[in-house]
Amino acid sequence: MSTPASAPADATPSGFPLSAYLICFRGIVWREALRFLHQRERFVSALVRPLLWLFIFAAGFRQVLGVSITPPYQTYILYEVYITPGLVGMILLFNGMQSSLSMVYDRETGAMKTLLVSPLPRWFLLVSKLAAGVAVGIVQVYVFFAIAWFWEVQPHWTGYLTVLPALILTGLMLGSLGMLLSSLVKQLENFAGVMNFVIFPMYFASSALYPLWRVQESSPPLYTITLFNPFTHAVELVRFALYGEINWQALAVVIGCTIIFLGGAILAYDPARGLISRKRQ
Amino acid sequence: MALDAAIMKPDLSAGAPDAPPALDVRRVSHSYGDRKALDSVSFAVPQGSFTALLGPNGAGKSTLFSLVTRLFNVRDGEIRILGKRLNEEPGEALRRLGVVFQARTLDLDLSIRQNLKYHAALHGMTGADAKLRIAEILQGSELIDRMGEKARNLSGGQLRRIEIVRAFMHRPRLILLDEPTVGLDIRSRAEIVSEVRRLVNEEGVSVLWATHLIDEIDETDRVVVLHHGKVLAEGDVPDIVAAESAGSIRDAFTRLTGLAKSTVEPETAS
Fold first, then answer.
1. B90 interaction partners in chain A (CB closer than 8 Å)
2. In terms of Cα–Cα distance, which of A193, A185, A210 is closest to A79?
3. Domain segments of chain A as ranges
4. Looking at the domain B2-105+171-268, which fold is it?
5. Taking CA atoms, what residue in A is nearest to B122?
6. Interface ipTM
7. Which tens digits make up the pLDDT trace of A206-248?
């Protein structure tokens, strides 16, 4: 790469060393971080949203848990404590969808073209982009944890470490769902639809706000729906991990969904099979 | 300057007769639904040449660019860049290619340097490499002092010039420019044309320059005339002018596309 521009003969080396992949990955994450820093409103609103739920909604719903003790909790807990993993899921859900919004935006502004003419494999570019979005989401989650700590949501300190892999997995699943959606959404305006038809149903029909046994008591059909909602399993994965436990079922569902969503997104952005070539831009 | 001396240019086009063309487009067709944007298009950009892809708006130039940059897949026909088949070896083909798209693609919230470094990283170049390369390309240009500024603060012509620098960053062998002067004033247009020609001379790359503006074409260029998705003529400017027994390339173009109008329009108008 450091040889001067060369003569008629094609002096371009063949193949890409591992370092090229690492540099490319770092470049994509770095750009995402820069963009995030430039959009301070995005960071503030990403934090205000869950904090409103924690400070106001949770205060009003303190009684919702009743007297039951459900795992992974070993004692009676405040509703604020119960809702925290759900709010973490919410942060990652919005972040994942926002990354998808940025991909639609990128496609309209041409930034997507800049990314896709990179000679590195397209799946690698998409996974790097996804990882960059997840990294930004996880920073938001830890800031939220820090504020929630002062609001009496205080898991054991090791929980903050054990929850990290769950956050990464959840972020990947929701990010790849967003990426898949971004390949289907034609224009930016359609994103409001994603909000109404994806974010809200996923969030409300899950165990984020109320324990599943409560849902089962009041509405068996809704209970079935929540079980089929991958977001439920993401929230449970985070909930257990925050207390140093693994919810195997949730883990399996989250990994399975990530593979399906990410595979779909890679296919959708693959020029050989993809949907983008059927559209004009 | 020492570098310039080391960089070829002399026997580029003359030498290596068996060298593959920088760009080789063979019988490429592409449709959007029922509408055929490209109809069995074939042409070549020989190594070291400055080839203008001349066509009115809607001729299929942007579609062709989307195919060559692999934003769209080539489903019908074949495209090779320096002999590398785009469908079989996309990475090898794309790394030899630099592109300036018609729409602006710089990130306006980032600085010029950040934009260029991001592009370099996408091509596996380290930050240090990128810095050297920026200095090399922008040697003597006033733009070098504005690297830290946000892209938003630059004029349209300056943004375009940065996009051209960006296309050269990873030392490609072929540069595609899709109507790079659209929307610019006359002075910026002239600057961009001369900037690209200077870089082409210094670096010995091959160029495909899409345009609908005939005055951007030099007597020494090669021209491919594209109209309604078909190649109407391909060759050196004097040859095309002679073949059409026209007085100038402008006349030749009018005759070619005028001819095409009477024969092609009826079927595409439906």
1. 119
2. A210
3. 40-271
4. Rossmann fold (3.40.50)
5. A24
6. 0.81
7. 988 888 888 888 888 899 999 999 999 999 999 999 998 899 9
